[in-house]
Design a protein that fits this description.
Layout lengths: L31 H5 L7 E7 L11 E4 L2 E11 L10 E7 L6 H10 L6 H13 L2 E9 L4 E8 L15 E3 L5 H18 L2 H46 L6 H29 L3 H4 L17
Parallel strand pairs: 1-7, 2-6
Antiparallel strand pairs: 1-4, 2-3, 3-4, 5-6
Helix pairs in contact: 5-6
Length: about 300
């Protein structure tokens, strides 16, 4: 007890355990969790080829399939592509399909697949790749920058020709999430840079100049003429009002008309002053808070 010992225990996932044969060799694990974990089964070595930098990916990083860890990274090597003059990364992984549990068992049964038939296993992987199976480097920790390898299905991924004779089997890859985000941002920036900003600004400036000229003409010619006309109409109505009795309905109506003409004249002056200060409102529209409530017309029904 003082120097340690060896403990034996049947794991809970083996209900059909049988007594051990004589002289059987038992694997010695470092701790209880490792000893009671489900068996990994036979591992399968595969390669991945990435065209982007993978800083943060280390040997021993997990490999997941649809969020379930079932393998690890065993090698990372920098390569040189003479045709593209680039430096891709070759990543070696070992996966243990048995760790997928019931999914692996049911798949073998449905596909009538013999796990010992290597050629059939390669064809099965090839069918997965045709249906969009791809490998991707994803961020496992934003603070530390650690990456892991994720295998998932991408039905819209670009079709890749699979070579069943290649050993080890190679799984196609797609750019990581951060690389995809960076590409989208670069695309947006490029589209913005392609916009004729200077030409648009020049057109706006010229349009504002023309608007100011039109407003100047409106203030100098049109508005005085309208105001003079309103003044003449007001004088005429006042003369007509003086000829009517004070309690007559016609005089009351003329008084209301004179009030309306006065308000119209003030509104024209307000409009002229506002357009003189804000000619761009002819393009953008007039804000709701641009004028007091008493200068706005009655609400529309």
């Amino acid at each position: 007890m003082l120097v340690g010992g060896i403990a034996f225990r049947a794991p809970p996932y083996s209900p059909n355990d049988k007594p051990a044969d004589e002289a059987r060799t038992f694997e010695l694990f470092d701790d209880q969790d490792s000893a009671l974990a489900p068996p990994n089964g036979e591992g399968q070595y595969m390669t991945l080829r990435f065209d982007q930098a993978l800083r943060g990916l280390k040997v021993g990083a997990p490999v997941e399939f649809l969020g379930v860890e079932f393998g690890k990274v065993v090698s990372i090597n920098l390569d040189f592509d003479a045709s593209k003059r680039s430096f891709p990364l070759n990543v070696g992984i070992v996966i243990y399909p048995q760790l997928l549990g019931q999914a692996h068992t049911k798949l073998l049964k449905v596909m009538n697949h013999d796990p010992n038939d290597e050629a059939a296993g390669v064809r099965l992987i090839g069918s997965f790749i045709e249906n969009g199976l791809r490998a991707q480097a994803r961020s496992g920790n934003l603070l530390t920058g650690q990456l892991y390898i994720a295998l998932d299905f991408y039905p819209k991924a670009e079709k890749v020709k699979f070579d069943p004779s290649l050993r080890p089997v190679s799984i196609p890859t797609i750019p990581g999430n951060l690389e995809q985000l960076q590409e989208k941002l670069e695309s947006i920036v490029n589209k913005i840079n392609q916009l004729p900003i200077e030409r648009i600004a020049g057109n706006l400036d010229s349009n504002l100049v023309e608007l100011r000229k039109g407003l100047t003409q409106f203030n100098a010619k049109t508005l005085p003429g309208v105001q003079n006309t309103l003044a003449d109409v007001s004088k005429t109505l006042q003369s007509a009002s003086s000829t009517l009795a004070e309690d007559s309905p016609q005089r009351e109506q003329l008084t209301q008309t004179l009030d309306e003409l006065g308000r119209m004249s003030r509104s024209l002056r307000e409009l002229s002053d506002y357009l003189g200060r804000h000619p761009e409102s002819l393009i953008r529209g007039r804000p709701d808070n641009a004028a007091p409530l008493d200068l706005q017309g009655p609400p529309r029904k």
